[in-house]
Fold this protein.
Amino acid sequence: MEEAKRIKQLPPYLFARIEKTIEKAKAEGVDVISLGIGDPDRPTPGHIIDKLCEQAHNPENHRYPSSVGMLKYRDSVAQYYKERFGVDLDPKSEVVTLIGSKEGIAHISLCYLDPGDVALIPDPGYPVYGIGALLAGAESYAMPLKAENGFLPDLDAIPEEIAQKAKLMFINYPNNPTGAIANDDFYRKVIEFARKYDVIVCHDAAYQEIAFDGYRPPSFLEYPGAKDVGIEFGSLSKSFNMTGWRIAWAVGNSRVVEALGRIKSNIDSGAFQAVQYAGIAALSGPQDCPAEMSEVYKERAKIVIDGLNSMGWNLDMPKATIYLWVPVPKGYTSISFAEMVFAKSGVVITPGNGYGEYGEGFFRIALTVEKERIEEAIGRFKKSIGPLEF
Ligand code: PLP
């Protein structure tokens, strides 16, 4: 049963490893607090669940769905883009339903990358960008996200021969894992770069609705020319606490959207229609959930930041996402710090190098546990992991 080279090359999925560590410690009686995985802890709003239940009873929804999604769902995505971003989308040709944005992010590489091609990926970054390229037999080129550049890639630093070979560029703002946001100037530069080198931009906007202090993350598609060069992935997972439902979209350039739909029609058969109806309820119903969750994450972020700053860190509040990206103290690597923290406090943090080489020197905290547990985690840090040098 010799496995194919492509699967043998897959690195162990970071979170699978973390889950194993947690299970082992729990079995040994440790009261583990996991700040490791970015999976919203609050339930999906009731009106969305009700819509699923109602539609699950309809036999019409028990049959194969369309692989590109119901027009009604795609229509509600288009409506949301119009109202939220002022972006016009043709629901028939510029929107495709996804079974979670992870699915689309992985499949887009199969649409555009052949061996010898290059995908430009952010480092640190969501691991699926590079994995998709690897499964397509292509190469990834890491665009470093450095603190001194506000965790934006420096497009001028991409070597000419790499830019020539690049077919896809993944970008992601608000950003996982750094919590950074992008400015107008950056998006304009990305579009210019994409035009010059004939690169398809894939903007991952999974955290588009989780933002603080009045900041409203833009859509990539708001920028002139964006639709000519790329697509945006969006998802209900984080905005409406729906990670388990697997419902998302890709929108933008009609040729790219069509190619993604073509791959999907040959691999999966689309999202359960009752879930798409629930998605419509999320997009077209009350928008309280993302606003409330943003407040919840902001409060949690403040507790962590105040706690860590009182231990010697010097962190600012992020503007968006459910993550904090924190430098490790002197004398530690990302891994050695995360291991020490777990051993001494039972708190799981994610070592930054799990998101790529340039994540070394950082760790990520996911704000997806209740405030009391976050306070408990900070209390344990103060008791057990100091003194630290910076
Ligand atoms: N993109 C980023 C940056 C993420 O962090 C995640 C999930 O954590 C996803 C995409 C995938 O989200 P989903 O497949 O649930 O839509």
